[in-house]
Amino acid sequence: MTEKLITIKDVHKEYKVENGDNVNALNGVTLDIDKNEFVCVVGPSGCGKTTLLNIIAGLETYDSGKVTMHGQPIVGPGPDRGVIFQQYALFPWMTVRKNIEYGLKFIRKPRNVESIDESGNKTVTTVLERYDTKEKHDLANRYIKMVNLTGFENSFPKALSGGMKQRVAIARGYALNSEVLLMDEPFGALDAQTRAQLQEDLLKTWETEKKTIFFITHDVDEAVLLATRVVIMSARPGQIKEIVDIDLPYPRTQATKLDPVFMKHKNYIWETVYKMYLEIPK
Amino acid sequence: MPAPVQDSQLKKKARKLKDFSDGTARTRYILMAISIIGGFALWFLITLIPTINTFLASPKQVWNALLSESAANGRYFKDISISLQRVLIGFGLAFVCSIPVSFLMGWYPKVRNLVEPWIQFMRTIPPIALIPLVILAMGLGESPKYTIIFVAAFLVMVVTIYQGVKEVDKTLVKAAYTFGASDKDLFFDIVIPASFPYILVGARLGMAASLTTLIAAELTGTTFGLGARIQGAQQFMDTSIVLLGIITIGIIGFVLDKILLLIEKKLTTWK
Predict the structure, then answer these.
(1) Nearest residue of chain A to residue B269 (CA atoms)
(2) How confident is the model over B86-131, as pLDDT tens digits?
(3) Among A143, A203, B82, B110, which has the minimal tally of Cβ within 10 Å of its Cβ?
(4) Looking at residues B22-42, what average pLDDT do you find?
(5) Smallest Cβ distance to A89: which of B174, B269, B271?
(6) What pLDDT does residue B87 have?
(7) How does pLDDT run across B119-164, given as a tens digit for each residue?
(8) Partners of residue A91 in chain B, C-beta under 8 Å
């Protein structure tokens, strides 16, 4: 039985652009995201994918509709929703380790405290505590190891390649232990080989450390390879056009791309997206 | 049938991409040496012309001036230390004041809108124009000198540093928010370190401004200081002393800038 984690209901959002026109970025978007699902969103540029991600992240507001997580409305950003940006967003003055530890600075982890009152009754209360230095250090080590960056703990981001930087960002996202990872075209700026490898790494981590991932891409191959469901959005106004279930078993690797089922989905989604692209006045 | 083209001919004909690099260290040093020696030679040669020598002292005359000024009863080192003190105090005060002002301007749009028109207006006024007012207000002591240098350095540094605060990478701000950082965390953990390089660039520009205003500052009536010495020597048409003062200020500026550059390199290894 799947459990609904995020509910997006009839969300509308308009922008005012510089010449005074209103752009309808999202026009009645409704989507449920289940726990541990891997949702990929594809669509032509300007379809509001990033706006939707920012709304879930709490980085942007919306005009009408409802966005909830665990039934609670999302009112701002928070560490329960980690975001991974295309531009990595690493702090250049912090080493790899410090970048990962910085994300942990604001997290409160629950700890059960037992106490016995005068009449001898045991009560368990949960208190929220910050991570201490040692815990942060150990967690950082663990996730640096997970993304294969052992040996680069004390490097500054400028010394790393684009792929390595994005690994650090992913490690940071995982270390937060957020329930949801929101990824905004995270591999968009990387070369084909690095991208293929990071896709496989991400699949492996997702299969072992279950998480809910909301992943935006313009690469249909990538969407079909990663996702349990691919959401196709259309532009102007931004709407969900179709949702395709990807019935390919995990574990998936680059070899999955040769599977006829993969091809079928890929061709279908590509045609749908490209048709919409051609319809956009340019 | 055309004659076969030789390899060497091809090499000559091949169009190479324009080289925008600094060249190798060796050629750089050789050219630097040529430039310095050539400059002195040119200076020496033109001062052989008597009409030019009346207003431009020769290298030898400047050297003699250096010897007499720095002799036991000379005033060279006193001039240097007084000028240096003025520059460093004026600059230091400007540095300390410009940081809070530029952070307030960068962080609060309302402060920026209130303060910026005045900063931009003042920036176009040469500090030398303020001298009469400053003398009337402060008399002839050391404070008018500090004030003139302070104004020049402060304006340059505020403009540079607040641009840095304003232009903090917005993705980093977003990332910090998603971790759960408050506005206070954002300011201390992200904005300050991110604008650090701008603070150092601002300091270098401010230092240059302080030195260029030094002469103007020493117009406010003083007997000691490099600027005062240059003006005094001008009245006696002693161009060797004038040139000595100019060269000294140049060297001081060069050394101070190199020191700041070194600090910049040390503090922003991550850049």
Answers:
(1) A93
(2) 999 999 999 999 999 999 999 899 999 999 999 999 988 888 888 8
(3) B110
(4) 93
(5) B174
(6) 94
(7) 999 988 888 888 888 888 988 888 889 999 999 999 999 999 999 9
(8) 172, 175, 190, 193-194
Q: How far is A185 from A86, CA to CA, in rounded Å?
A: 5
Domain layout of chain A by residue ranges = 1-78+179-282, 90-177
Q: What residue in A sits closest to B181 (Cα-Cα)? A: A106
CATH number assigned to the domain covering A90-177? 3.40.50.300
Q: What percent of chain B has pLDDT over 90?
A: 58
Which of 87-126 (A) contact B at CB < 8 A? 87, 89, 91-94, 102-103, 105-107
* Domain map (residue ranges) of chain B: 25-65, 74-267
- Placement of tokens 């540029």 in the chain: A45
Residues A142-171: tens digit of each pLDDT: 989 988 899 999 999 999 998 899 999 989
Answer yes or no: do A93 and B270 touch at CB < 8 A. Answer: yes
As given in the structure block, the two tokens for residue B74 are 């000379």
> pTM of whole model > 0.90?
no
Q: How many CB pairs under 8 A join A and B?
A: 60
CA dist list (Å): A260 to A245, A247, A249, B185, B226: 15, 12, 13, 51, 84
Nearest to B263 by CA among B200, B192, B208: B200
Contact B171 A85 (CB under 8 A): yes
Helix axes B239-267, B59-69, angle to 10 degrees: 80
Residue B189 at interface with chain A, using a CB cutoff of 8 Å: yes
Under CATH, which number does the domain A1-78+179-282 receive?
A: 3.40.50.300
State the pLDDT at residue B141. Answer: 84
Contacts 24+ apart (CB under 8 A), A11-16: A11/A52, A11/A55, A11/A62, A11/A64, A11/A65, A11/A66, A11/A67, A12/A62, A12/A63, A12/A64, A12/A65, A13/A48, A13/A51, A13/A55, A13/A60, A13/A62, A13/A63, A14/A63
Q: Which of B174, B189, B193 sits opposite A59 (nearest CB)?
A: B174
CATH code for the part of the protein at B74-267: 1.10.3720.10
Segment A82-98 shows an average pLDDT of 93
Does residue A80 belong to the interface with chain B, where contact is any CB pair within 8 Å? no
Pairwise CA distance, residues B226 & B83, whole Å: 6
ipTM summary value: 0.86
Nearest to B180 among A59, A91, A106 (CB): A106
pLDDT value at residue B1: 59
What's residue B3's pLDDT? Answer: 65
At B2 the pLDDT is 66
| A251 prior amide bond cis, ω within 30 | yes
Cα-Cα-Cα-Cα dihedral of B178, B182, B188, B192, to 10°? Answer: 50
Contact B179 A91 (CB under 8 A): no
pLDDT at A281 > cutoff 90: no
Structure tokens of A198?
A: 């990071």
Q: Is B184 on the interface with A (CB under 8 A)?
A: no
Q: How far is A175 from chain B (nearest CA, A)?
A: 11
